[in-house]
From TrEMBL:
Keyword list, A-Z: Carbohydrate metabolism, Hydrolase
Keyword Protease included in the entry's annotation: no
Name of the protein: Glucosamine-6-phosphate deaminase
GO MF term list: glucosamine-6-phosphate deaminase activity; identical protein binding
Residue ranges of every copy of the Glucosamine/galactosamine-6-phosphate isomerase domain listed in the record: 14-225
One Pfam match: Glucosamine_iso
Gene Ontology, cellular component aspect: cytoplasm
Length: 241
């Protein structure tokens, strides 16, 4: 792991964005996967600024989703697709044909999983993966006790994830399941950027970097990845400094 410790959230977001910019410049036709959630928003803002400043062009990239709440789609406030549309895809003018996202409202969720797996296999691998981490250690919706050998799958959400989910929705949503890329996808990605900020993430980042690898804390599996950049602010890195 390559660890980058920033003074604050804005600096951490900028560090992650520069890693993404460099990767896309080196491989313009990258298959890219960005997590949604609150932590990546600063990184998206930096990327949008770089795009409008002419520093980066995403025209040849293809984008896939990390995860989605089952029951929610692109038009639903707080969905992963809606977050990425608002904060990255639309401001950067990403063409819809270059986006392949899980449809959480589908009646054929297993078919959604197969279509995603087939797309990744056809490309070869995910070239660039931006991940946040939950306070319970989840990556995407790979919750504690996940099967580390899985590819895309539908899963029951951990109680902690369901509790935290309320911050994403303006109206109460009874989310119980998620659809997500599997740990096998994450491990096989060519480059991973893991971002974390704030005191609330300090304990899980200590486990991410220092704990034994276990499916009880899914983020620990990143220790096995050969090309991971961990970007944290000083608060999130408090227990690993």
């Amino acid at each position: 792991m390559k660890t980058h410790i920033a003074r604050n959230y804005l600096e951490m977001s900028s560090q992650a964005a520069e890693l993404i910019i460099n990767q896309v410049r080196e491989n313009p036709n990258s298959l890219v996967c960005f997590a949604a959630g609150n932590t990546p928003l600063g990184t998206f803002s930096c990327l949008v600024e770089a795009f409008h400043g002419g520093r980066i062009n995403f025209d040849q990239c293809r984008f896939i989703s990390l995860d989605e709440w089952v029951g929610l789609g692109a038009s639903d406030e707080g969905s992963c697709r809606q977050t990425l549309d608002r904060h990255f895809f639309e401001p950067c003018g990403i063409k819809k044909e270059n986006i392949h996202f899980f449809n959480g409202t589908s009646d054929e969720l297993e078919a959604e999983c197969k279509a995603m797996d087939d797309l990744i296999v056809a490309h070869g691998t995910i070239d660039l993966l931006l991940l946040g981490v939950g306070i319970n250690g989840h990556l995407g919706f790979n919750e504690p006790h996940v099967d580390l050998e899985q590819y895309s799958h539908v899963t029951d959400l951990d109680s902690v994830t369901k509790q935290v989910s309320v911050k994403y929705f303006t109206e109460r949503k009874n989310v119980q399941k998620g659809i997500t890329l599997g740990i096998k996808h994450l491990i096989q990605a060519s480059m991973v950027i893991l971002i974390a900020d704030g005191e609330k993430k300090a304990d899980i980042m200590r486990k991410a970097l220092r704990h034994e690898v276990t499916n009880e804390v899914p983020v620990t599996v990143m220790q096995r990845h050969p090309n991971v950049h961990v970007c944290m602010d000083e608060s999130a890195a408090a227990f690993v400094l």
